[in-house]
Amino acid sequence: MICCAICGFISWQWYSKSHPEHGVFILDSEQCRFENDTIKINGHISNKSRAYQRSVWLYIEGFTSSHWLIINASGVDKQSFVRLKRATLAARRECGESK
Questions:
Q1: Which ranges of the chain would DSSP assign to H, the alpha helix?
Q2: Full residue range of the structural domain in which residue 75 is found
C-alpha cells in the first residue's frame, strides 16, 4: 500500500512538472522556448516528440538538459495547436530522413 502511494506521488510530480497550467510557448523555425513562473526551457523539438489528436507531447532537447512538455488542444487556440502539431511532425520527419 505504501509503495503504491509513493509511486503515485512520484508519477503525479512528473505529470504536473511536464504539464504546466500556464506559460508562454514560442516556436521559431528550429528552436522553441517555454517560460512560466517556475520553469524556463530552451531547445529544439526532438524526434521523440509525439502528436496526438487532442495533445502534443514535446521532448525538448537543450544544450544541457532535456524536458518533456505536454500541451493540450484546449489550452491554446486552434491555429496555434495545428502549427505545433505540424512542427512536431516535421521534427520527426527530419530526423527520420537524416538516418
A1: 2-18, 78-98
A2: 2-98
Q: How many domains does the chain have?
A: 1
pTM given for the model: 0.76
Q: For residues 42 and 58, is the Cβ–Cβ distance under 8 A? A: no
Supply 7's cell numbers.
509511486
Place of cell 495547436: 81
CB neighbour list of residue 20: distance below 8 Å, 6 or more residues apart:
34, 36, 38, 39, 69
Q: What is the CATH number of the domain that holds 35?
A: 2.30.29
Q: How confident is the model over 43-99, as pLDDT tens digits?
A: 888 888 999 999 999 899 888 888 898 888 888 889 988 988 988 888 888 765 555
